[in-house]
Specification:
single chain; 263 residues; alpha+beta; four-stranded mixed beta sheet; 52% helix; globular
Length: 263
């Protein structure tokens, strides 16, 4: 059941929201995910061979290509070698020669058009978090970072294709990082999510006042803990990847401040 505005205002006040930030926070926490009547085709775009030729021409080292069968359908995933080639692809292929916002903080890119979708993944540590912070050997962390990125971006593909939205928003990141972490580790921990979210915090609270951003920071901690508890339920074990995404997208963002006990 959709939360009432009164419930949402009460929840935000409980997180420390000031009246002057309330409108912006209500808009930020509004659930924009809705099932789509038109979800497109799994057929590879006729434009793809041209894009792939351009990708190879831009990269100084030959990139790897995977046609990955995601929960949202098949999608090309490009793996450039090194940061330089990754950033070249962002500038030349994704942003078409224009400036790339926060390029130094970017580790992946999901391109979604009416007839063309693909993903580009860097080989950086995820969110710039070093292996030592994760308690892992360097090689293991780089491998898991790639898995997190792949499933993170595929979750964005799912919500964009089937639920109509993919944004720089806490709700989207809770879903995408959940899928990435669960795919990489076979479990989800709230503290892992917060390590990554804190690095990207400015991106996902852009346009909010400092006080409103701190409310979102408090909400992110509570929400991550709620999702962690949800993974311990019997209902969670019955869901496949698409079901997990649908469940998390179907929840109001502010509902995550309550520990999820049932499904």
């Amino acid at each position: 059941m959709k939360m009432t505005d009164e419930n949402r205002v009460s929840a935000l006040r409980g997180l420390g929201a000031a009246d002057g930030d309330m409108d912006a926070l209500l808009e930020y926490t509004n659930n924009v995910f809705y099932p789509q009547s038109e979800t497109g085709s799994d057929e590879l775009s006729p434009k793809w061979p041209e894009i792939w030729d351009r990708v190879q021409a831009v990269c100084q080292t030959p990139p790897r290509l995977e046609m990955f069968q995601s929960a949202a359908g098949a999608i090309p995933i490009i793996y450039p070698t090194g940061v330089s080639d990754f950033e070249r692809l962002l500038r030349e292929i994704v942003y078409k020669g224009k400036g790339v916002p926060h390029i130094e903080d970017r580790g992946s890119s999901f391109v979604f058009g009416k007839t063309l979708q693909f993903i580009i993944l860097s080989d950086k540590p995820y969110s710039g978090v070093p292996a030592s912070d994760m308690g892992l050997p360097e090689a293991d962390w780089l491998e898991k970072s790639m898995t997190i990125r792949k499933y993170h971006e595929c979750a964005h593909y799912y919500t964009k294709r089937y639920l109509g939205s993919s944004r720089n928003n806490l709700h989207d990141e809770l879903i995408a990082d959940f899928r990435g972490l669960y795919a990489a580790f076979g479990e989800y921990r709230a503290e892992w999510f917060m390590k990554f979210f804190d690095v990207r915090f400015g991106i996902y609270t852009q346009g909010l006042s400092e006080s409103a951003a701190q409310v979102i920071r408090a909400l992110s901690e509570r929400a991550a803990k709620g999702i962690h508890e949800w993974t311990k339920t019997e209902g969670f074990a019955l869901l496949d990847e698409a079901g997990q995404i649908e469940y998390l997208a179907g929840k109001e963002l502010l509902e995550f401040i309550q520990i999820i006990k049932t499904i």
